[in-house]
Amino acid sequence: MNSVKTLHDLDLNGKKVFVRADLNVPLNEAQEITDAHRVRSFLPTLRLILEKGGIPVIASHLGRPGGKRDEAFSLRPVAAFLREEVIPGNAKQVTLAPDCIGAETEKIIQEATYGDIVLLENLRWHSGETDNDESFAADLSRHMEVYVNDAFGTAHRGHASVVGVPKQITERAPGLLMQRELDSFQKAFVEPERPLAVVIGGAKISSKLGVLLSLCEKADKIIIGGAMANTFLAAQGFQMGRSLYEPQLFQTAIEIIGKIARRGAQLYLPVDVVVAPSLKSQGLARNTTVQEVPADCMALDIGPASRILFQEALQNAATIVWNGPMGAFESEEFAEGTESMVESIGNAHGLTVVGGGDTDAAIHKLELAHKFDYISTGGGAFLALFEGKTLPALEALGIHL
Length: 401
Description:
With 401 residues, the chain is an alpha/beta fold. The chain has 15 helices and 15 strands. The chain has a 6-stranded parallel β-sheet, with helices on both faces. A 6-stranded parallel β-sheet has the order 9-8-7-13-14-15, with helices on both faces.
């Protein structure tokens, strides 16, 4: 990574700091946070800004309110959480502004002094955020002296708070969370200890085609599970019954297999699967080899032999990167493959880096997050980095990987 200023380098004393955070947390019907992982991941950055004398003005989106004010997507629950969690025993004053722009919000920002924290309301209540509107970015930037981006989860989006605001502010740096994401990517993919093993799951090749093509050139071992593996199997002539797969990508799958082989790398696909007539079939799941998938069934998880195969393939890996479940893990009948992968990677000796919401959910469900070296807070941004794309947020900060 090229040399840029870090948050530690900046003089924040007495300055208003615009902090783009990713506080897009899940809420239940009672407007309570059901998973505060993203907020907790942001707290070290917030605490450092306060320690350095800065006055943080935090901006985030929440959900998809469609460019209009919708109280169902208010950041009120996040403000309540911050009041409790920022510095236990030494609570700072957290003010939730009525909006992210406007005269009343400006007044709150102007009057904020050391020890105050201002949380702006949902950026996506305004279409100017997703449209990267210059006037909206200018309104957000008013009175700000420093820009900090700690929202890796939105780093792949060219939105106003991500690319428009930093154009207006000279002093800028990544937050601690963003820095950790980039450091982990550097260790896992730019300069990895080898063998480098990458585990890819999920539903469709089409959603991760660029990533797979990039992996062909970098990884020593590629393990493919989930419905994505069905396309690779079907492309080689296996009859996959009613399984989800993408016939239009058969040729691409064959080309990927060839590229991996020519490099001398190893590709691992399931050798057995758990099948059922449908995802809603209760008590009808059974195991079968990939050669014998019934015509009236669909593959919904990897089988026990595949779990052992994948586990053994990972044993000597020095670096492991994982994105995507091994099956329809939301259902208990089809969760063993993903849960087995959580345990296999969690117990591995190499560096372990994980990304993607479903993968993250599976790890936290088993309460094994502590066994992984790094769990990324970004799904799309995580994949975009591994695909080799330039992320708008990094470009705006002057960071080149």
